[in-house]
Amino acid sequence: MGTRKFWLGQVGDYEIKQLKVFTTVVECGGFSAAETELNITRSTISIHIANLESRLNLTLCQRGRGGFSLTDEGQTIYNSAKQLFGALEEFRATVNNLNSTLSGDLRLLFSDTVSGDPRLQLPELIHQLHDQAPDVYITVDVASMNTIEQKIINEEAEIGFVPLHHEIEGLEYIHLFTDVCRLYCHRQHPLYKVPERQLTDEIVDSQALIQAGVKPHKKAIHLIEPMDPRATAYYYETRLAMIRSGKYVGFLPEHYVDQNTQPGELRALLPNTRNYKLDSGAIVKKSARPNKARNLFLELIRAHLSA
């Protein structure tokens, strides 16, 4: 068998666009799942991938009835493309920071209800940022705590806002506020009308628990371990919906319950013992590339906290 000889010439905008399509397909796990992310049809995606394979003279992936999978060459190209995009982003950030006008991107990721929490005053912070740096392009999104931490570490976002369940080496943590989390049931739940003196740990532990689906906060492990988890809902809104079914008990921040339920709708079970404190904070990568927009927003947060 002869050795394949091929030389790739200059890589331009068109090839970079095709590589972005390819990496998105890989991260979505296939063509169909990538349609929504890319906002283009599956046939268009297929054309991009075919053109890229032709341009590189490589078979990057297998697709068909057996599903989507990368070839060994495809995995190598994917890894190299991610390195390329990282280098391009670093170059763009460097240029933006050298510019006398504060511009560039500021990507903010929020866990659950933090963005709407009045204690953070996000609208006022955005207002101040825009007054001082109107050319900054702001992207705001919601994700799970684990996803936010990973994106901050990978520098796919500048600042994350998460419950502080643990600390990860390489991240800086800025405390925002503290909540008391309590174990709640809905008024349709059998325990709602049980007198406090009749409630025991054994009775409460036997109830179906709706859990968050992440490793429990260190202060809550001893409360959750004896219980009977029967369902999972990460976000407070969906957890509250499950509790409202009258079939589950679950932990929620007291402040969130006060803001989002009617008086008497939920009952805190064994409130003196079934509670723990949960801090929320902003996280940034300690060794992240320079970003003036990020630094300005952190200054605004710190000024708000010290006011």
From TrEMBL:
It comes from the Bacteria. It holds the Pfam family LysR_substrate. SUPFAM superfamilies: Periplasmic binding protein-like II, Winged helix' DNA-binding domain. GO terms for molecular function: DNA-binding transcription factor activity; transcription cis-regulatory region binding. The keyword Transcription applies. The keyword DNA-binding applies. Keywords: DNA-binding, Transcription, Transcription regulation. Residues 14-71 form the HTH lysR-type domain. InterPro entries: LysR_HTH_N (IPR000847), LysR_subst-bd (IPR005119), WH-like_DNA-bd_sf (IPR036388), WH_DNA-bd_sf (IPR036390). PANTHER family: HTH-TYPE TRANSCRIPTIONAL ACTIVATOR BAUR, HTH-TYPE TRANSCRIPTIONAL REGULATOR. Belongs to the LysR transcriptional regulatory family. This is DNA-binding transcriptional regulator, LysR family. It comes from Marinobacterium stanieri.
